[in-house]
Amino acid sequence: MAPPRPNGPIQKSLVRITATEVAPDYRAPWNAGMLGRGVGAGFVIEGNRIMTNAHVVSNSRYLTVERDGDPNKYQAKVLFVAHDCDLALITVDSPNFYKNMLALKFGGIPELESTVSAYGYPIGGERMSVTTGIVSRIDFQLYTHSSIDQHLAIQISAQINPGNSGGPVMQNAKVVGVAFQGYSGDVAQGVAYMVPTPVINRFLKDVSDGRYDGYVDLGITYGKLQNPAQRKFLGLKDDDRGVLVETVVAAGPCAKILQPGDVLLSIDNHPIASDGNVELEGERVEMPEVVERKFKRDNVKFDIWRDKQSTSGSVQLDTVPPYLMQSHKYDVRPRYVLYGGLLFQPLSLDLLEAYQPTDLRLRHFFDFYVIDQIYREHPDVIVLTNILPDPINTYLAPYRGGIVDSINGKKIHTMDELSQTLAEPADRLVIDLIGDGPPLVLDPKQVEGARERIKMRYNVVREQNLQELPTAKAPDLQTKI
Amino acid sequence: MRSLFISVVFALVVTAGAAMKKEAASPPPNKDVKQKPLSLVRVNVTGQPYDYFRPWQKKAPVSKRALGAVLSKGRVLVTADLVTNQNYVELERAESGEKTAANVEVIDYEANLALLEPSEKNFLDGIAPLDIAGDTVVGDRLAAWQLEPTGALVATEGLVTTIQMTKYPVDVGQFLTYRISIPMQYRENSYTIPLVKNNKLAGLLLRYDPRSQLIDAIPAPIITHFLKEAEGENYRGFPGVGFSFFPTRDPQLRKYAGQTGKPGGVYITNVEPNMPAMKAGMQVGDIVLAVGNHEIDQNGNYVDPLYGKIDFTNLISAHSYAGDVLPFQIQREGKPMELKVTLEHRDAKDYVSPPYALDEAPKYLVLGGLIFQELSRQYLKEWGPNWQREAPQRFVYLDRFQSELFPGEHRRIVILSQVLPANNTIGYDEFSYLTVLKVNGQEIKSLNDLAAAVKQPIEGGFIKIETEEDPKQIELEAKSIDAEAPNLQENYGIPSLQRLD
User: Fold this and answer.
1) Which residues pair with A342 in a beta bridge?
2) How many domains are there within chain A?
3) In 3D, which of A292, A233, A230, A303 has the Cα closest to residue A266?
4) ipTM for this prediction
5) Do both A74 and A179 map to the same domain?
6) Residue A86 and residue A143: Cα distance in Å, rounded?
7) Model pLDDT for residues B182-193, shown as the tens digit of each residue
8) Does the pLDDT value for residue A2 go beyond 70?
């Protein structure tokens, strides 16, 4: 007798995804990158689409999908990737593929302590695996794929391993989450996370217009207002309401209406408690949850307490680009300029991970890029990351790791400006790096004479890339629905 | 560049009572070791460093045992780190175990040297003082002198492999250092170990790496400089000039600087305000070709009669004294010039974030539970040997780049280091490591500024603190702070809510 199958015939929905990926090489950015291969899971949802994690298909050059009981491998293409919440939609063009496949339906947020089952292909096995566990915690978590985004995530006690990624977590025959991250065994055991349905539904709604806009952000920091003296100073009532605006990111949407020292009393007419919580659909959640559910170009309205007067303001929400410097990037070619064997690259999380610099100034520019608003003066923090040795740069090794301040007295703010300035005719190039070190001096004629030599010797196919263009994909995979 | 060497942690568990008993029963010094009366005394130190995380108190006392080199005029030479933050120093004669208290007469933390004097004037009678041997060169053999528990001398020979400039523990500039390869074992009295050449003092142990068996030693020329300076009425310390420089190996850089003639010299990258080099008219972009009669090569070395090529800063630190006028031959855009630089010692107090603060109590001010302090490297070093990675990174940044961020400013950086939970700090207890900008509208450039500003509450009786980092603003009620002060002191055992100067 077959055992009971509370979630139904999952084999008819689950797919095994094999991705061949090329990860950019930040230490040799002119190269295509390192070839890798990964296996993940996915599941069919309505509209002949397959849902999986963004990290399963990121940087992929060739995707295949297999289903249970079918010897064929089907080529798949990416429809949408959401790196900020680690979700993706892919599809298969072959008309036969979806025959006999069942689209899974989504449920809500499962109860704490209720049992859930995770399906996938852990550690790359060919047959479906099922593990069960209970819902342990529902909380905001860092999504490690981008490594800057925090969203709601559900911690479950089911065993999840690489290969489970993208697989459905089911309860009562409905998807209640997508398995996506966990800890390695030596940090914590029995702790796995799934992307819950509020995040999934938001993703599906965002892409319903044919493009993924991503999460929006207020671009502010705020603090609790629990100190009686501070409340009195601000002229607030003793009613446990309001949070203090601390930093307003100039590049964020709130810069137009908020300033440090403002008190936010309510957001979209939801009163904000002094600990930063609001009540949303009967639940106490943190204030940003209101924004989490919104989309690009949606509005948000604040009741504001400023200089002991109440006022209000509304802004159109948008993404806050400076944050992206501190996030992982996928499916893009790294930007760089190679000049006279000197490799200039914009500071980013991927760059730091590739070079692992210990330089205090670099780490400071990275850590405080947004919060100290360094991006205003240095939209690109341009680092002299490497020097390809050549007779013209023999003595320049000590300059490595420096941040470009100006060239021939002209401040350099972006990689584009760097490229243009280096191309301008000049008798000599004097590159000032930030700090009190010596200037870096080059003779453009010598550089010109060494160009071909350096390109040949180091196998440099292109001397610069200034745009984070999507990496080339097979033409038939570019279409979007 | 981080030094390859780590200071060694010593075992400090020998109790004085046990040692005395042992020595009373021990035979006289081994006759096989050819030795006149030993020119060494044991030095026993009880020290108690200040606790920068609880600045109103000291940490638990620690005991250190070491050897001191007996010099002329009844003085004993030890390293400064032995007697730093000492409560009690005691000298002990090796052969008899006789003891007396001692005072620290002169101490130089930067050169890591200190002179002790016994309180009993004739305590050292009969001990032949050590002369200083200033002529050590690479290839010489030096003996490390240690004592057995019995009082017998153990001399281990090692070879001087390198003589170069290195950083000393407090990390202010570089000083001449001997590196010696030596198969030495640590004994109980090993904090300061004299290195001896032909029965003359050639150096004192600076640091030891037991794995590679390499010693760095404070060399005789630095000791001589220290002793000569100590003769004077006011000890001034080692001199400096206040500039940064870079080698001129790169022909493009030489061309940029407009250098003519043969290559050589160093390129000046920074001249610190109010320091000797700036007072003498030195500018960024100058090429320093010679100091005194010594030519400087493209790497920044001069040819020393004893050591050969060595960093030219040795001419300033070891060979010159504060107040000396040193001629610098420079080229400015190709034009030769001579600048007369009057050397000065730069006191630790003259930095924005002082590089060290030893034997002095840290300043602090506790306000309703908020603890304010002044940023210093001494404070950052409370995070341990990896403080540069582990201490709050903004503070490490401010300390490291202080001359660039606050050029010529005479000020301190006041920080809100931590918050003690109390009635006045409800909702503030998670704040820590904040940089204070203003208090009650007044700019804060020292803890004294802050102490003065908090006495002038703003309208409504509030004290408003503005910080560089989030939360940006913190408010307290002046009268509530005063009312709660006794409770706060009682609960957290704070004898005084402030220490200024």
Assistant:
1) A339, A387
2) 4
3) A303
4) 0.90
5) no
6) 7
7) 988 776 656 788
8) no
Q: What is the CATH number of the domain that holds A359?
A: 3.20.190.20
The alpha carbon torsion through A162, A168, A171, A176 (nearest 10 deg) reads 110
Instruction: Give the lowest-confidence range in A202-206, A405-409, B184-188.
Output: B184-188
User: Range of A199's domain?
Assistant: 115-209
Indicate which CATH number applies to the domain containing A249.
Answer: 2.30.42.10
A328 is catalytic: no
Report chain B residues touching chain A, CB-CB < 8 A.
244, 246, 249-253, 255-256, 267, 269-270, 388, 393-394, 396-397, 400-401, 403-404, 424-428, 460, 462, 464, 469-477, 480
3-state per-residue secondary structure call for B71-96: EHHHEEEECHHHHCCEEEEEEEECCC
Are B372 and B485 within one domain?
A: yes
CB contact under 8 A, B250 and A395: yes
Catalytic residue chosen out of the listed positions A55, A83, A145, A378: A55
| Range of the structural domain that residue B54 is part of | 16-231
Does the pLDDT of residue A250 top 80, yes or no?
yes
A270 a catalytic residue? no
The answer to whether residue B10 is domain-embedded is no
User: Do A197 and A85 belong together in one domain?
Assistant: no
Contact between B256 and A439 using a beta-carbon 8 Å cutoff: yes
Residues of A numbered 352-391 whose beta carbons fall under 8 angstroms of chain B's beta carbons: which are they?
Answer: 360-361, 363-364, 367-368, 371
Q: Do B325 and B448 share a structural domain?
A: no
Mean pLDDT along residues B474-501: 95
- Kindly report the CATH number assigned to the domain that includes residue B333: 2.30.42.10
Residue B58 shares a structural domain with residue B163: yes
Which of A13, A58, A165, A348 is catalytic? The answer is A165
- Total Cβ atoms within 10 A of residue B290: 18
The CATH number of residue A15's host domain is 2.40.10.10
Contacts of B244 in chain A (CB under 8 A): 436
What region, left, alpha or beta, does residue A226 occupy, with left being phi > 0 and alpha being psi -120 to 50 degrees? alpha
pLDDT single digits (tens) B386-398: 999 999 999 999 9
Question: Which tokens hold the place of B84?
Answer: 């730093």
Domain count, chain B: 3
